[in-house]
Amino acid sequence: MGTIRELLDTEFGYLRVYRSHQVLVVCHHCMESLVAGLLRVQFHSCQIPMPVTREGDAMSDVCGVPVSWGIGHSLAEAEIKRRNTRKS
């Protein structure tokens, strides 16, 4: 969570990133810039090595840290869009 927060802070600035439980929220005035930045963060998160499990194996079916996102005018709207995107 901390590494993803650092990526978001670097991309958008630490004043635009908020944490709500297990969700990181980014406030932005331009939808196109927001989507482009989120895609860059998602790309860079795939480059982060996965932690090793107790058995000594990394998660083999996932490359890097998975990041999903949704965009909306409220946290609830963004969560609905994120879930719909993951299903398709």
Shape: globular
Looking across the biggest beta sheet, what order are the strands in? 1-2
Q: Write down the Rg.
A: 14 Å
Secondary-structure class: mainly alpha
What number of domains?
1
The unreliable regions are: none
Number of E-type strands = 2
Strand content: 5-15%
- Tally the helices: 3
Order of helices and strands: HEEHH
Mean pLDDT, to the nearest integer, reads 82
Residues in helices, as a percent range: 40-55%
The major pleated sheet works out as: 2 strands, antiparallel
Separation of termini? 25 Å
In short:
By secondary structure, the protein is mainly α. The protein is built from three helices and two strands, in the order H-E-E-H-H. Strands 1-2 form a two-stranded antiparallel sheet.
Describe this structure in words.
This protein has 88 residues and is mostly helical. The protein has one domain. It is 44% helix and 9% strand. The protein has three helices and two strands. The chain has helices at residues 2-12, 31-45, 75-87, and strands at residues 17-20, 23-26. It has a two-stranded antiparallel sheet. A hairpin with a 2-residue loop joins strand 1 and strand 2 (23-26). Helix 1 (2-12) runs antiparallel to helix 2 (31-45). The two termini are 25 Å apart.
Topology (SSEs and partners):
Elements: H1 2-12, E1 17-20, E2 23-26, H2 31-45, H3 75-87
Antiparallel strand pairs: 1-2
Helix pairs in contact: 1-2
Essential attributes:
9% strand, mainly alpha, two-stranded antiparallel sheet, single chain
